[in-house]
Amino acid sequence: MDRPVTTLFMLMSVDGKISTGASDDLDVDKDFPQIAGVREGLHQYYEIEQTTDLWTLNSGRVQAKIGVNTKEMPNKSPVSFAIIDNRHLNGHGVRYLCALSKELVLITSNREHPAFSAEENNIHIIYQEKLSLKDALARLKSEQAGLLERDYAALNQAYAVNAKLFHDFHNHIGVLQQLLSRQKTKEAAEYLNALQEPVREMAGNVWTGDETIDYLINSKANKAKSDGTDFRIQVEFPRRTNLKSADLCAILGNLLDNALEAARQVPEMEKRYIRLTIRRINQMIVIKVENSYASGHASPLMEKDGALKTTKEDNGLHGWGLKSAQTAAEKYDGCVLTSYTDTDFRAVATLSYEGVPIR
Of 104, 139, 174, which one is at a domain's C-terminal end? Predict the structure, then answer.
């Protein structure tokens, strides 16, 4: 049925296209920028969208129609994109979306898709033999949530212990006062030791002076201990630098998690080890993580075309952690390099830093 151009229809098709008509000849992405009174306000919509939607789902077909395959490279936005595409995006379009997105997840069943040749660190590919939006979204949700929540769960546990201690503080003081007033110093000392135990487990050693980083290192050391892995730490860390805790957590957390997983798979417990070394060399921080892994198995990480790759079978999103470490290092003109033998693996991150004066 023919429709007049003046009639506005909003139809959602299976590929996510919102249309002003029944065919590509009448398309919102093409039509709205041409309509006086509408085009002037489109930028407001996109600006609002960027502040409300952390993730947006779309198709390569729609992105191609709005010109990503030919447009000049955009500024980075805070929005992450999940794009379903088999044949509409070219290499430029993929790079455009990487430049625009905080994170780009491309879902495809095309083994020859140009996304596989992309060198950007923020692209993550979900390959499916047969496209299934339901499976892709479920996988995206679980993997992303796991990555974000992994270390924060441990930190929340620490804060919960700390909060309980403060809540019980007055009761503990009262008990100690009673013991000391009766000259029961031995009992008071034992009570204090018992009281300090959860704090001791939470805080452990002070390695860097940054409470978040120190707790992260100590929590990984405790995990290694529970796995039967020999974990040794040597740290020389400068105070008052421009290095952000979140970036250091991204590097240390991901590299140590990979080391823990690899060492845990070594059958002989006496051969399980992890060595964490942090050194300051002039205005550079060197973070080195060495670990054992099961002989005869693939290296837990490998390099391909200069980029870190995971050898896990389900590597579409498992590689996020590795890329997260690399991206964090690059913020400080650094990088993450790896090497391995038949039984040992090494990852070295380098970061340049600047001192922050005391005010």
Answer: 139
Domain identity same for 17 and 125: yes
Report yes or no on 147 lying in a domain: no
CA distance 212 to 203: 10
Pairing of strands 104-108, 80-84: parallel
**Phi, psi torsion values for 321, nearest 5 degrees:** -60, -40
Question: What's the rounded Cα separation, in Å, for the pair 9 and 34?
Answer: 16
Q: Let me know: does 251 contact 278? Beta carbons within 8 Å.
A: no
pLDDT > 70? residue 200: no
How many contiguous H segments (helices) and E segments (strands) does the chain have?
11, 13
Answer yes or no: is 257 within a domain.
yes
Q: What is the mean pLDDT of residues 87-103?
A: 92
DSSP track, 103-167: SEEEEES-TT-GGGG---TTEEEEE-SS--HHHHHHHHHHHHHHHHHHHHHHHHHHHHHHHHHHH
Backbone angles phi, psi at 225, to 5 degrees: -60, -45
Strands, E assignment, 239-334 = 273-281, 284-292, 301-304, 307-310
212 lies in the same domain as 350: yes
92 part of a folded domain: yes
**Side-by-side strand order, sheet with 80-84:** 55-59, 80-84, 104-108, 123-127
Averaged pLDDT for residues 224-238: 91
In a shared domain, residues 111 and 233: no
Between CA 337 and CA 193 the distance in angstroms is 43
